[in-house]
Amino acid sequence: MGTIYEEQQRPMIGDLKVTVHSTSTIVPAEPTPHRTMFLCNIDQVLNFYVQTIHFFGPHPDHPHPHEAVVGKLEAALSSLLVHYDFLAGRVAVDPGSGRLVFDCNSKGIGLVVAASEYGLDDVGDLVYPNPAFEQLVPKDFFPEDKPLIIFQVTSFKCGGFAIGVECNHAAFDGLSFKMFLDNLGAVTAGKPLLHVPCHDRDLLAARFPPKVTFPHHELKAIDHILGSQLESIAPPVFENTEEYLDFKIFRLTGDDIGRLKCRAEDGGAKRPSGFNTVTAHIWRCKALSVAGEDEERLSTLLFAVDIRPRLSPPLPRSYAGNAVLTAYATASCRDLRAGPLSRLVEMVKEGAARMTDEYARSAIDWGQLHRGFPHGEFMVSSWWRLGFADVEYPWGQPRYSCPLVYHRKEVILLFPDMDVAGAGKNDSVNVIVALPADEMAKFQTLFYEFLKESE
Length: 455
Description:
The chain contains nine helices and 18 strands. The chain is an alpha+beta fold. The protein folds into two domains: 3-200, 2-Layer Sandwich (Chloramphenicol Acetyltransferase), CATH 3.30.559.10; 219-452, 2-Layer Sandwich (Chloramphenicol Acetyltransferase), CATH 3.30.559.10. It holds the Pfam family Transferase.
């Protein structure tokens, strides 16, 4: 049955002793036209930075990452910026509309070269988020004129290294960032692009006039206009909390997930997916763990849905912007406790099915009228099947890839397990949870009680 990953971790090093050797700016290898890129309403509220880390073990052909990897990466990024010219630009405000835009001015992206005094095997379990991993992402560089994306290559004494990436979320969603990395790996190896990016963000422009045809319970309006502000603004559901949070990773094996799916099917759920089943299981545990729980209290679960295939006509799969909207499911604590699991799985499925072309267009138009953020009790953010660890680089696939994790009460993360990352399998999943101690104790008890019912 599922295990608590934290009990398996090796001791963590609190300071990776990272020394920065150089910082530089990479510009496109060829001249690119100076233009302004329209940002759709989904992009508008994502003007904040997301950090990811990609760990690589030693490679016999690249024993000195400073010399080999950095040079190849720099050349590949310069070449790739011809195809992703907006990345070399900056966030700006259109004076006429007050909306955020990308000023594609070829100023370039950032590259930081650093080294740790430790070997990769010394730094501890890569799956368990170590606060010291912050030293592997370039968070405090280029403060006066911040690029949209900055890379940091940190070499370890063993010959392994990490590539930390800090990227403005307005540039990419998870799928388009994965495709960017695919292209980076290909160009670094001297190959053509694997995905020709589609940069036409007008495909997700609001209708004129805007037409909101659905109630959007998953969205909350805000009073001020984001377009007039260039500082990083994260949605309230993602804000850090001041209170102390207990932190655990719950590992579900492929067998655990299979048993949960069988139980859902036995109850009448039709072809339950792994994501829907795991999310329903988490939703029940999270809602019922809240202190002073009221049986009639409504719990709203949020999760992201890729709208590329859901629009009519569908967006190109290689759409290189943000094409993800928030789906939701709502139930009372009484119904979540009583179940059955099959019904909860169907509710998650129905939340995703709600995201039709018209619903998505309505949500985009809502953003034109109101400006707002996703709003609910908590969000399940899944990195489970994005496939960052499957990217092929000349120096091999990553040993592990993950976002830099912060402890956030309202966000539960799903990560692939390291044992299967990069192996073409995604049987197991790590559920990363941060809650106040009393709520965590309830969550943990419920997590295993409900899981045991599926045996």
